[in-house]
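ok here's the first one, seq then struct tokens
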Amino acid sequence: MEMTGSCHMKVKRIILAVSFFMGVQGVYAQENVPSDLGGPRFIAWNNDYQYLGNSDNRTGYWAEGLNYIPLSQNPETYLTVGGEGRWMYEYLNHASANFEPNDRNESVAQRLRLFGDLHLNKNFRLFLELGDNWAYDAEVPTPANYDAVDIQQAFFDYQFKLNENMQVGFRPGRFVMPLGSKILVSTRDGSNLQYNYDGLRAWLNYQDNLKVDVFNVKPVKFKRGSFDDQADNSREFKGIYLTASMSDENIDKANFDLYFFDMNHDRKIFTDQFGKQNRNSIGARLYGQKNNIDYDFEYVHQFGDFGEKDIQAYAVFSKFGYQIDQKFNPYIALQSMLFSGDNDLNDQKLKTFESPFSRTALFSGAAEFGLMNALFIKPSLSLNLLPKVNLTASYAVLQKQTKNDSIYHAPSGVSWNDHYQTSSKDIANITELELNYDYSRNLNFNVLFSNVDAGQALKEMGGKTNNYISVTTQFKF
């Protein structure tokens, strides 16, 4: 009987231990459910639905059957099927600020996407995204809105651990690649077609504190036909991007970025100059959050050569934001940016800043002006009117950094006009109202109004005030 009692006690202890372990495992799985439930995220390859491999994490939501399709008993081997449908109505009374005749533009842009994301354990992944893009009834067609059924992204990832703390990965193929603050290397999401690249991207991650990205790519040249897109061999973009996360008892969140970009391409900087350009950018960024305050500082220095000219340019960005714990959760922000211009067009130095693949709608939703020879200051206020409804109002001042240089077009970077020097620096005063409604994880509605009130410098070059309206419906799964 003692033996039996002893055995019963051992069995009971084992059962309790196993129950405790399973309980801990269950809590661990629940804690590792992403706060946004894995997606759909802004960039589709950032989605992470592996947590759905644990049936306890499933809620019965309709999309989960597509988010996670198990392919074996290994929960790390699964397929995600997803896509996007986006319809954007746009109206501009002066799409080119009146520099081109009859530049009123009204259209409906349609973006359709379908992707498959195949995960074969932790080490190997295949991603394929097809897209169909068109704009209807546009008086002034935007090339980045047109591309019949074609491969938007196609790549594979292979990653492995060098040791317990260090992981290395490789991504050859075609992919979207926003970097850092997404000001210099953005996505161009306002257009149907994002910036896509053909080439290689590799990375090294050390714990959660350090990430190093290296890449050598060529931008994709989009054509209107089906399956005819190809790499633009006239441009090459390579570089390294390092992100370090810092922790301190006096700091809630803090990150430091350091990067180097090398851009080689044939370029038409001014209306009377065309040639080969090699432009290098070295930048540093410090950003983070302390209590209700967030901050972001970035400095970029550029050097290289364009024809016989030496490039010496720079840019400075900053942003402060403050979240107020009151009704409607007011968020107040102040954003300022400076992109250098050239104060002497006849010397052997080119001092006009140029972004590699810039955020085209940075200054306004209408995306008229390039990130060159510009000083931009924008205070804004955001309010959560309802749990899923946000309203943002802003007023911005846009000026030339130097009067002797021109005003440049986004995203081409070509001068708006042959006239460079103006008596004033004032380009425009920009007032914007944006209403955003997240109906669900998958469905979003957005309305944006932008008034770009022409300043004296723009008027001297023949420009006029532009009013822009967009109404967007976006469905992702």
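and now the second one, same deal
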Amino acid sequence: MTDMKTDTDVVIAGAGPTGLMLACELRLAGVDVVVADRLAARTGESRAGGMHARTMEVLDQRGVLDRFLAAGTPRPIGHFSGLWLDFDQLETRHPWSLMLLQSHIERLLEEWATELGVRVRWSSEVTGIRQHDSDVEVEVGGPVGLRSTLRARYLVGCDGGRSAVRKLAGIGFPGTPATVTALLGDVELADPPAESLFMQRRTGGDFSVFAFEPGWYRVVTTEHDRVADPREPVTFEELRESLLRIAGTDFGMHSPRWVSRFGDAARQAERYREGRVLLAGDAAHIHFPAGGQGLNMGVQDAVNLGWKLASVVHGRAPEILLDSYHAERYPVAERVLHNTRAQAALTRPGPQTDALRDVLRSLLEYDDVNRHLGGMITALDLRYPMSDDHPLTGRRVPDVELKTGDGRRRVFELLRAARPVLLDLRGDTALAATAEGWADRVDLVEARSAADHWPVWPVDEIPAPAALLIRPDGHIAWTAHAGATPDPAALRTALTAWLGPATAD
């Protein structure tokens, strides 16, 4: 059925942070997109509570970070299983965590998406998928039994850990089951603690009590070897009794806004693509929410996938480019599942765990250890595998200052349009000639580096390169060494691999 008329280029299932970020990325690239969510409207619930540096960097690349900074509170720390990490050492313009509830993140992303022309359909749960050679039919359930069918080039499931899209696509979700029951509630307290309590460990588990906004508190409890039936509704009384068991007090909690339950199950989709169906965010991976990595990983999934999917939709790159999404992002989630399993193990009560935590706490006094774990939690240390062995290639581009004909600009400012950038830092005419066949897909920028050396994670500096090919997600696809004449053949290979054949080819 190759002549089927599509209603839109891409349907995204799920209007959470991952789905909204992906929708914005696609719209920046000129792709028509519809977001379908099973809920009737936003609930105001907020499981995640902040952003890490790499997520702030990608929002900075798009020019919208100021909206989020204005709504949140920076804190120069993070944690690994409740052991504090000093983010001041991180090589970024944003060496902090931004404390900002998920509900606010979603609101700001939806406002941006609306400005870009994204359509969000509420009460629209994906109930069926039929794939064809050139498109996919997406059955969508609506209110009072109404159903409709959307036809699109691609469908992306961003619909959470119980993803209907993943199940309908027949993608397995192997992993490890839950061993703990954790409860979370936003409540008022008649007798709150004098200061925030974060992961207070007791013989029966651990608990946290902290204020996100004036007038109410977030209470979290974790009890080991008590696995609740996920089909049973969670109640306020269940949260209160759990806190009493662990802390010996409920701090006079009352007037709950909402309560939720989660565990430490860790699962990952067997593959992130099945034909014209792709997965991102919690639909592709779930884990214990240790270190605040989940929302951030989902947003970064979206930024990795968005430009690739747009290139394929526009016919500029072959479909095989989409396979690089799984190749790059699957190992990232594997690592997060690994470190969150370790963090969950470090929360277990008992003298053996106490001793292990003491040893790790002493190791964190060493800058290299702190920097290693900080880079992992924030994803600032991420390097995608590339054929080019230059130390910058595959890493996120440093946000250094450049001298251009229009004055000073930061590298991130070159990525506002979500397009690839060929950055020429030595005025090599051969670069422009080589890139002519991709002029419709890459922005050629001639500038000079304001600094002689650029930082490379974790601590080293290298001479400023002669030229870079920067992907729209901010990762470097090709680098010319400082002082060397750029190799046109190597650049042509990189342009073809990531942007498709030259127009003249």
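notes on #2: Residues 401-499 form a domain with the Glutaredoxin fold (CATH 3.40.30.120). The radius of gyration is 24 Å.
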